[in-house]
Amino acid sequence: MSKSNKFTVQEREISFLSHGDNDFLSLTDIAKYRSNYDPNDVIRNWMRGKSTIAFLGLWEILNNSDFKPVEFDGFKSEAGYNYFVLSPQKWIEKTNAKGIISKSGRYGGTFAHKDIAFEFASWISSEFKLYLITEFQKLKNEENDRLSLNWSFQRTLAKVNYRIHADAITEKIIPLELTKEQSAMIYASEADMLNVALFGKTAQEWKNGNCNLEGNIRDHATLEQLVVLSNMESLNSVMIHQGLPQKDRIAQLNLTAIMQLKSLLNNKSLKRLQNP
Considering the entire predicted model, what is its pTM? Predict the structure, then answer.
């Protein structure tokens, strides 16, 4: 799990964690809408109800293959009785639940998958739940717009570098006596050399295996691949000016792609950019 982020709902800060495609909202912060003094008691009271246990169990059955149904059945049979008490920690420990997590430390508290958090918010206040969903969706839309802008920027950068790359091909590879059609064939060869070095296949090979997708191999590249592609285009133009033959350049470009992709995939700053 990453460090918690925050957004505001009716002048109250709500923390959340993002893990892959899943978002976990702070039940502790949501519970403060009802009680600032002991939000943990609010969460425990919610978890005592039969409908709550049924909902939590169903969510786990649908989303968690490691969930323990026998232990869940025990809680379900006792839920609703005056003596029944259940904490998030006990629920997690006994059933191996994944939809609720309990964190300690600076960014601690009880967090739950957004499906569960919205259900809890509904128990707290229907009005508050509506504001919570609205503000959280607004936040995610802004995040998606930002990531789309970053991807578009890298795509544009790759296109700009391709122009530099193409100019180097014109100057150093294409003899003046070639026709435009012959020149275009060499451009295609150089572009596919980069595709093979980075993606492991030519544009046509990719298209043959992805007939149902629109666009080309580069349109479906990841942010990391586009960053590396722009660097490879610049490097290839330098090697072209140095007079290196294509067979030597493709080996160097492939090593560069492997090295840079490994570095980017382990880059914490880039991960924060993609998961702010």
Answer: 0.52
